[in-house]
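User: Last request for today: this protein with magnesium ion, please.
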Amino acid sequence: MKNWPIGVFASIDAGLGVQLDIVHELQIPTIHLHAPSKENRTPEKAKLFLEKLASYGITISCVFGGFEGESYADIPTVAETVGLVPETTREKRSQEMKEIADFAKLLGCSVVGLHVGFVPHDTTSDDYADVLRVTQEICDHCHANGQSLHLETGQETVEALIEFLQKVDRKNLHVNFDPANMILYGTGEPLEALEKLGTHVRSIHCKDATWSKNPGVDWGAEVPLGAGDVNIEAYLRLLKKIGYTGPLTIEREIPQEPKRQKEEIGQAVALLQRLKETIC
Ligand code: MG
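Assistant: Here's the final one, the structure of the complex with magnesium ion:
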């Protein structure tokens, strides 16, 4: 496969991302798939889904886990509801994440992605140790499936993320880098973070955002690719520098406006193709 195929975040039923017919219409060859709900994670559904993908000529490069009860309404709500960090749902969700990895295996996908959530700041706390434990267990489950686990960036600083990766200490744990999240959550300058993460980064999102007036307190704003503070050309140049050759997976989360979402993803494809020609 040539370097940097264009991708997009997509979904089958629930969750983030655009529907497959839109991916097909925009002639995008690869997707990150938001894992479908439990009733659709069966061998029969996987077979049907793979047939549809094959007819469209689309491949899946990562299956992302998501859970019922997660809300991205504002930063405190994310901290309370997203990923493996909320204690009351931790065990159940880590079990579900393993089921999602098994479903990804049925789809022939060797990468699963996850927002762990706001990892506790106190690295000596029991809570931190327990988040490490469940992450290790998921990594080991993925390893047995021949898969890697990619953590989505954004909810912690790059230093905290690197420390977490080191403490989990599993060879199949890597990073899905999302530059816009670092701006949205106010966790640091994304390109500096990308350079520090280097080869930890094994998959990426192409998403853009503008900083809020109170970074880390209020959300920044997600905007069309190229209209925000990431600097997409510099982002791609840096990806080249760190040796990243995988898909450029566009993420644009405005499901409430499907017409605009499709237009903006189309514009993002054109932008990335133009930049690829300049940079490659
Ligand atoms: Mg993302």
